[in-house]
Amino acid sequence: MEMTGTCSALAENEAREADSPPAGRGGLLVESVEAGSPGEAAGLRPGDRLLCVEGHDVRDPLDVKFHAAEPRVILTIRRGESELDVEAVKDPDEDLGIVLPDMEIRRCPNKCVFCFVDQMPSGQRGSLYVRDEDYRFSFLYGSYITLTNLSRADRARIAEQRLSPLYVSVHATDPELRRRMLRGSRAGRIMEEMAWLAGHGIRMHAQVVVCPEINDGPALDRTIRDLRSLGRSVLSLAVVPVGLTSHRNGLAILRPVDRGYARSLIRALRPVQDEIRRERGEGWLYLSDEWYLIAETRFPALRHYDDLPQAENGVGMVPAFLFRFRRGLRRLDGKKARRLRVAAVTGTHFAPFLRGAAERVRRRTGLDLTVTEVPNDFLGRGVTVAGLMAGQDLKHRLSNVSFDRAWVPDVCFSLDGMTIDGWTLAGLSASLGKPVDAVPAEADGFLNQVERLCA
User: Fold this and answer.
1) CB contact at 8 A, 421 and 390
2) pLDDT band at 16; cut points 50, 70, 90
């Protein structure tokens, strides 16, 4: 696919689209100012409205971060009825030290046939039912977007501010197939969108959620081939199995991934992975850990995941944990654990690996560490990852276990400290009448937790 052709096609489509109106000069409320910060030294106060940075209107904190990257920055503020300019002096990479309102996340315009939001049980907190699609959050936090709601102004901002890399949910590059899967009118333009971004120096990580008998086989081959045609602009591609909960009444019938299917896909993609590694000198095409767990087969060596570009997408997390655990185990040499019964909690897929680690910890330190496997009754037994364990399932399983202290992986808790069904760590501890700790889900953090219980 030639980039010039796709970009001109996108330009023709853009000409028929109505862009969002430009933001006015409402500015952003300064909620607080950090003591001793450049913002305080410049005279900013809580209640001011930050209108411009270096003459540029600010729409959100990302604008402030971009335009305030210089050592001397002119800030235009409104205080009461007056507008005034103040100067902030700082190191180039230093923050202004002001707290601004959180960005309101943009919503996804699609209704994907496999959308996890649609598979959530009813009656939970509202944030679980939000379909997000925001390029700013993709750049800041690595959230995946479909590129189906970008306006001309959005693209111009991405290019100007070099919002790279972005994380793109591709799923299929065949236009008609992608429209059917995402059920969105603009979904078929994925290659045009990605080519435009690539042509403006934006790099991307991509993912494909494989739905058996829909976007696999020749469709997946085409997707991989098309994304490879964008060269180094696509930094990596993760292939992930579709996740299905038990709450799919009224939704499209999708075939789950079973052991035989997982094994056949691993076999089919291995020659492609080898070819890409020879061509690029790196893996680029990675299968998420779930494929190997479902297939009940060995993982590739950790070196095949290169620098783990998609670890947050569940790619290479298990091999990385096992490698770093074995390497770090020597830290426990000569240490003796306190007399304490610890229950280490995890999901069903990772439980066998954590049991092996727990046994090595017991032999080395004497710590009474047992692994408690928690089936997911909240979302369905087909959901096996630790990060989606529900508080009610943790409570039920731990109520039937004898322990003095429980360890729950920190990935169970959102940024606001809640499990998927709204339990907090404090609430779980109070309900069980025993202390429950949130423990890092990676090897070094796990070993640090063990060391804290050793002399």
Assistant:
1) yes
2) very low
Is the separation of the CB atoms in 319 and 300 below 8 Å?
yes
How far is residue 25 from each of residues 60, 83, 84, 368, measured CA to CA in Å? 12, 11, 14, 61
Tracing tokens 């910890």 back to the chain, one arrives at: 361
Q: 115 pLDDT band (50/70/90 cuts)?
A: very high
* Helix or strand holding residue 303 (H, E): none
Strand 285-287 relative to strand 72-79, pairing = unpaired
Strand pairing report for 204-210 and 166-169: parallel
Tell me how many degrees the CA angle 31-108-155 measures, rounded to the nearest 5: 75
What is the pLDDT, as a whole number, of residue 40?
A: 96
Q: 347, 386 in Cβ contact below 8 A? A: yes
* Direct distance between the N- and C-terminal alpha carbons of the chain, in angstroms, rounded to an integer: 62
Task: Please state, in angstroms and rounded to a whole number, the distance separating the CA atoms of residues 101 and 35.
Answer: 18
Q: Per-residue pLDDT tens for 321-353?
A: 999 999 999 999 999 999 999 999 999 999 999
Model confidence at 124, in pLDDT bands (50, 70, 90)? confident
Burial of 104 (0-12, 13-18, 19+ CB in 10 A): exposed
How many whole angstroms separate alpha carbon 13 and alpha carbon 67? 30
Task: Give the model's pLDDT for residue 18.
Answer: 40
